[in-house]
Amino acid sequence: PEISITIPLYNTKREFLKDIMDSIVGQSYQKWELCLADGSKTDDVEKYLREHYLSDSRIKYKRLNKNLGIAGNTNAALEMIQGEYAGILDHDDLLAPNTLYEIARYLENNPDADGVYTDEDKVTTELDEHFQPHLKPDFNLDLLRSNNYICHFLVVRRSVVQKAGGFRREFDGAQDYDFIFRCVEQAREVIHVPEILYHWRTHKSSTADNPASKMYAFEAGKRAIEGNLERTGTPGTVEHTPDFGFYRV
């Protein structure tokens, strides 16, 4: 299968952009395309990409008239995809060299799979230490309603993305949580690749490293769960727990 990867850009630091671009270009599995939607205020990102990467015909770049936020920029990238599956990346994280190979292998062996996710870990800004490995269970809806354990890296069949709809700005901070729910509601099967293939770069202001910095994100997560309950006709109420990002239904 061809896997389309989307990255929303906004004034991304050059060193971060180089790291993620190199991690994609260096994939052992070569049947991919990369769709970049850039809402940066300056042309620095575009200039850098044209100098170093855009000669690769698999890489598509679109300059947006303005920054549409993470939801809007991601949707602009999703509109560009041509592959059978879509994988959504943040602009500063990293893929292991065998990520797309392992995902493609699992998809070939599970023809009914409409979604696939991998294990992940965190990495320091300087990429000098990997920590907090997240070894996930196979798909578990009850667990997903308690915490966005799927998070990264998620690849979804393009037809499912189209049915589910893209990212929704009103869920900013938990836009991926809301998106995951709407995708799994449409998917025939969701499978898990039990290998750390995604490296989530942490910053002091990110929810990956400092949860209290984005309380609005956890309110949006609560609403994402409530939306899933409502769409699936499941009676229930959602409460926060003392641990940010974990919920009780």
Task: Walk me through the structure.
- The chain has 249 residues and is an alpha/beta fold.
- The chain is built from eight helices and eleven strands.
- It has helices spanning 14-25, 44-52, 69-78, 99-109, 141-144, 158-164, 175-186, 215-231, and strands spanning 3-9, 32-38, 59-63, 85-88, 94-95, 113-123, 130-134, 154-157, 189-201, 239-240, 247-248.
- The strands form two sheets. Strands 1, 2, 3, 4, 5, 6, 7, 8 and 9 form a nine-stranded mixed beta sheet that branches. Strands 10-11 form a two-stranded antiparallel sheet.
- The mean pLDDT is 94.
The major sheet is characterized as: 9 strands, mixed
> What's the number of extended β-strand segments?
11
Oligomer: single chain
**Could you name the ranges where pLDDT drops below 50 across 5 or more consecutive residues?**
none
Radius of gyration: 17 Å
Total helices: the number is 8
Beta-strand residue percentage? 15-25%
Spatial gap, N to C terminus? 37 Å
Q: In which range does the helix fraction lie?
A: 25-40%
| N-to-C SSE string, H for helix and E for strand | EHEHEHEEHEEHEHHEHEE
Helix-and-strand structural type:
alpha/beta
Shape: globular
Report a brief summary of the structure.
The chain has helices spanning 14-25, 44-52, 69-78, 99-109, 141-144, 158-164, 175-186, 215-231; strands at residues 3-9, 32-38, 59-63, 85-88, 94-95, 113-123, 130-134, 154-157, 189-201, 239-240, 247-248. The chain has eight helices and eleven strands.
